[in-house]
Amino acid sequence: MMLDLLSGLGWMVPAAVLVPNVLWALLPSRGRPTAGTTSLPHWVRWVEPVEWAGRLAVFTLPVFYRFKVGTTASVVALWAMVAALLFYYAGWVRYFTHGREPVLLYKRLVGAPLPLAVSPVVYFLAASIVLRSMPLAIATVVFGPAHVAISRAEYGRLLSETCSSAT
């Protein structure tokens, strides 16, 4: 019964990831270091268009698919989606409840590196199984490494600026 209710709701996949981002837009980071004091690595400007193309695809494609939970793989993938989404939300809760410092968007959570970058990649990859969408799987494989690499570079920049502003 519950799975029947989910069947036409592919749009919920990107919506669930966007909820905290809307809140972030309304309550932006505090204490952001002075922009431009430390630049991102040069390679980022070449990877950003790849990330944006992948991001557009992973947020658009699920809308055109239906949940299809009937196989063991799809049930496991659905649970993986739920776990990745809960982990993603935990990262956002930490950010909003601990002063909205930019570094919290990238800092390890329960030992996992870059939780707000890695968990959506896991989530969309699992969603590609539940939605039975090879295009979403491909888009996630394009988006994921670029998103994680750029997040890692931004985290390094923030740490560098935090250390240089402390001296």
Helix fraction bin: 55-70%
- Count of strand segments: 0
So what's the overall shape? Answer: globular
How far apart, in Å, are the first and last alpha carbons? 60 Å
- Using the CA coordinates, give the radius of gyration: 17 Å
Query: What's the main sheet like?
Result: none
Give me the secondary-structure category. mainly alpha
The H/E string reads HHHHHH
**Weakly predicted, low-confidence segments:** 1-5
**Domain tally:** 1
Beta-strand content estimate: under 5%
Which whole number gives the mean pLDDT?
90
Count every helix, treating DSSP H or I runs of 4 or more residues as helices.
6
Walk me through the structure.
The chain has 167 residues and is mainly alpha-helical. It has one domain (2-19, 43-166). It has helices at 2-6, 12-26, 44-60, 72-97, 115-130, 134-166. Helix 3 crosses helix 6 (134-166), helix 4 (72-97) runs antiparallel to helix 5 (115-130) and helix 5 runs antiparallel to helix 6. 29% of the residues are buried. Mean pLDDT is 90; it is low at 1-5.
List the helices and strands and how they pair.
Elements (H helix, E strand, L loop, with lengths): L1 H5 L5 H15 L17 H17 L11 H26 L17 H16 L3 H33 L1
Key features?
single chain; 167 residues; mainly alpha; 67% helix
Concise account of the structure shown:
The chain has 167 residues and is mainly alpha-helical.
